[in-house]
Amino acid sequence: MAEVNVKILNSIINDGDRILIDKIDDSYLSDALGRIKGHADVVLFPVNVDEVSKIMRYAWENQIPVTPRGAGTNLVGSTVPVEGGIVLDLTRMNQIIEFDEETMTATVEAGVVLADFQEYVEAKGCFYPPDPGEKTATIGGNISTNAGGMRAVKYGVTRDYVRGLEVVLANGEILWVGSKNVKDASGLSLKNLIVGSEGTLAIITKCILKIIPKPEVTLSVLLPYRDVKTAIPGVLTIIKENANPTAIEFIERDVIKLGEDYTGLSFPYPKAGAYILMTFDGRSLELEGNVERVKKSAIKQGALDVLILDSEELLMNVWKIRGCFVKAVEAVSEQEPVDLVVPVNKIVEFISYVSEYEKKSGMRMIRFGHAGDGNIHLCMVRGNRSDDKWEKELQEHLNAIYQKAFLLGGLTSGEHGIGLSKRIFYLKETAPQNLELMRQMKRAFDEREILNRHKTYLA
User: Per the entry, which co-factors are needed (predicted)?
Assistant: First the structure.
C-alpha cells in the first residue's frame, strides 16, 4: 500500500474544511458503540459523485484502503477502518434531487438522513415505509445494511424500496444499476447485489426510492399476557387471521422496567409478564375490521386485555419506551447488541432457550424484538465483569446463542448487518461454497480489494 498523498487529495477536494488529517475524532474511526476503533490517514467529505470517482481512482491506482460511511450509526463495526487509508464520509452529499409523483419515486443522495426524508415525503402526502430504529442514519447506510425495522412485517425492508442506484466502483468508474421501472427481468440484478453489501462492493452516491401513498389512519394496540410463551403463539394466530398489522413487537416486563427507569414514563398494565405491541395503518373501515379480528383472536389465545392506545400521550409514552431499549440497557451497563432471526414458529423455542441459558450462565440477556418476522434483539449485559472475564464469557455465550439460532434454521443478522463483530459467527454458519461465490463477486467488483476490507464475508 502506498502512503496517502494529501497533496493529491487536496487537489480533488479543494476545500480544507472537508479534509481531516491530524486529530481525527474517534467517531470517524468506529461505529455507534465506539468500542472497536480503527485508524485512518485521512477523512474526506466529498460533495458530489465526481469527487468520489476521483478519490476512488486515486485509491485504486495506489491500492489504498477506503472505508465508506454515512452517519456511523451501525452497531457491528461496519464503518471501522481496519487498515488505515481513507475514510470516505458521504454525509455532505445530502440533497433530495427529485420527487417524481408520476412514477412514485424520489431520487436522493446517499447522505440524506432517513428522518428528514420521511418528513419530506409525508409532507407531500406520501410514505416511505422502511423504519429502522435509528432515524438519524443515512439512506445510503440503510441500503448498505438492507435495514429493516418494525414495519417490515407489512411493508418489507429497505431492499423492497430501492429502484435504482448510482454507484462508484473501486476503480472510480460511475454507473447506474436499476432504474425507475417497476419490473426488471433484464439480466442479473446488480442493484440487489449492492443492497446489503455493507460498502464492500461499491460506493452508493444516489438512490432512486419507491414511495407509496400515505396511510389514512394509524392505530396502535397493546396486548398484555401472562408471559412470552403465551404471547407469541397469539401472534401467529393473528398473522393467519390476515389482520395485516404494520408492526408486531414482543416485549417482556423486565425490559419494560428498564425503559420506564430510563425515560421516567409509565407503561400500561404493569402486572403483565409480557406484551405484544401492534400497529395498524390504512383506511378507517379496514382498520376497524382488522382490530376487531385481533380482539377476538387475542382473548381466545390468552391475552389479559386488549388496550387501544387512542390517547396521544399514552401512545407517545408507549412507543418512546419501546424505542429506547438499547440506550436504556447501555445506561445501566456496557452490552453487546445482537440481532438474529429465527423462523417465526421457532421464536418461543429460542426465547425459552435464552431464558434457561441466562439462568445457567449468570449473564443477563435482555430480549425483545419483531414478533412478526422472527427478528430477535438480545442485549448481552456486561455487569461488573472485568475486561478479561467479559471478553471470555461474551464469546462463549454468543457462540451458544448463535448455535441455537442456527439449529432452529435462523440467521446471523436480521437488520444490523455483519461488519466486524459478527464475522466469526457468520463465517461459521455460512456454507464455504456460498462464501467463495461472494468472494468471487467481490473480486469482480473490486479486484484489488480496497473497499471496506476484512468485513462480512471477506477473508
Answer: FAD
